[in-house]
# Entry
Amino acid sequence: MASTVKNIAKSRLMSALMDLDEAGDDMRAIGCMTNTTADTDVDADNTGTYTLDEMDGANYVRKALANQAVATDDANDRAEFDADDLVYASLGNGTRQLQGLLIHEFITDDAGSFPLAFVEFASTINPGGSTLTVSWNAEGIVQIS
Amino acid sequence: MEIKIVTGYPEKFQDASGTPQERPYYSFTVDGVPSLKWYPECNVPGLPKDYYVQRCLKRLQAGRSAEAFGSAPAVAVNGQVVALATASPDWSAVEKQLESAGVAPHLREKAINAMRLSAKQGRGEVKPIPAGEPITVIKDGRREQREQRPKWTFLLDGQECGEEFPSEQAARAACAMKAFLTRHKVGQIPAALAKLQEEFPGRECKVWACGEQHGICATVDGEAYSIGWVRVGETWTAEKFKKIEAGTP
# Structure
């Protein structure tokens, strides 16, 4: 599968309910292993609806995105959402390999939180207790064009 | 390649109480050409005002570009990159599959464009140039055989760049920047100018990237023309030109 932007996020962005700026909503990343449905399901209205198959390796935690920013790319006719790269120190292997990250707008708990996008790695990965760095692409985490 | 950060043109807006406010934006130029990419001022305590644009530049210079290498993030373990999007689907093979499945040509094109957009994968490929034969050097009166270091080059959309780089990282950075500068409208300025000159032969035509107007501007004999762009595959092409009448904002 590939990275997907969730439909609920598109409508929340249009209704000005989801604010991706640093001073806006609390966007967080959830590590998902290969049994997740967060990669394929674009219709889910809240994070609690997914089978997350959340990463269960040692030292894994959900992470809040730091320094969120929205840029305008006039040359490409699009907007880009970006944040600082994520670093997981001494991340152990999970039950299954890590497939990607679900980015969601955190509100109290999974059932109340709204998914933005699933960002898939180019290949699944076993971190093996090392420091795992996820470096977002130069043109942002999510683009709207 | 000279890269400069430029402070942008303030955006005027009203805050929640309706009071007019201004906020500056930051952009960057490459060899004087505006990138047409705009970042808000960073108001996070402890970070520089131009933090966001700096972050983008650092990433491009590190060879990370959706234009060149797809949109998947790079994943590094202990600093060693282990998963980086470099795959380039063979779209001609995909089209053949669709053709054999009986899909009409116009629908094949639509399907492939849709797949291309969703995959957002680039066509950049960095590859080593095989090192030549070992060279013989004479040091302290003795002959020594030294292995030559391999050099690196890149292909973009299958086109050889024709340059050599001392490291894979340097080639990757150059490929990312090249893709960034050619995969969008800025890279289409020469083609747009040629089309404008074809449409208005013998007249003085200009097409340039304009930072102030956040876009590509055109003039014919000094009179402003707007450009109608259409998306073609992964890039843009100037389709038509329209004179901007006086009084048009």
Observations:
- The two ends of chain B are 35 Å apart (CA to CA).
- Residues 136 and 142 of chain B are 10 Å apart (CA to CA).
